[in-house]
Amino acid sequence: MEKPEPSATAKTPLTDYRLEAIYLYPIKSLGGIALSEARLEARGLQYDRRWMLVNAEGKFVSQREYPALTQLGTTLRQDNLVVFEKQNPQVHLQLSLTPPAHLPQTMVEVWSDRCQACLYGNDINEWFSDFLKANVRLAYMPDSIFRRADGRYAPPRTPVSFADGFPYLIIGQASLDDLNARLSQPVPMSRFRPNFVFSGGQPYEEDHWKRFCIGSAQFLAVKPCARCIVVTTDQDTGVRSAEPLRTLATYRQKGHRILFGQNAIWSGEGEAFVRVGMPLTLR
Torsions phi, psi of 232, nearest 5? Predict the structure, then answer.
């Protein structure tokens, strides 16, 4: 007996999407931490980019100016954030995840944004300054300080940490695989510093997402991420090259921006934790 033809209303199974990795970057532009689970907050993952280094004028510094920042790793140890030299982990600095309330406040800058931040004392600042051979200070953003996400794309009063513009960044593994197929030397996902990496779907499909869920946690996709020279910096060695920015410019350029990954905002709805292995669904 012949099988009947599929009806026009038959449903085609959707591609399975899965959360494959979670990354936390406590101090802006320093090494990240791979997590198996993480707590969601409105301004980003808990502890994500709540610290950053600033110069004497209060302007943020990053791998753009100091690729040596790739050589400082971070890890969470009990109630502390530990910063260490990757080439010599015995050289390290320990910071409480709950900084002292008496830290003085000053105005700091992240791109065109200005907001208040708390500043650490000379002993902490000297540790980073000695490593970079530059005068820098460590700033912290407590819950009491509000910095608004880019209002051209984010809903009003959306908070953000010291991240460039938005609380979360998600990238599909298929997108990186497609890029690496075009490169003579593949690059790891660490070049792009995402918070979330997912499997399933087609390369770059995250460009066009509007809403998605990780488990029951609901997110709004707001804007593809414009990339800069940081992606040309080897996160293990600090050495720069032309790639992968040169190749991305041949097929991922829109206007004057080269796009890779999708910025996102947690809606506050659903579970406030995400775990590696959770299903990811589109809405």
Answer: -90, 0
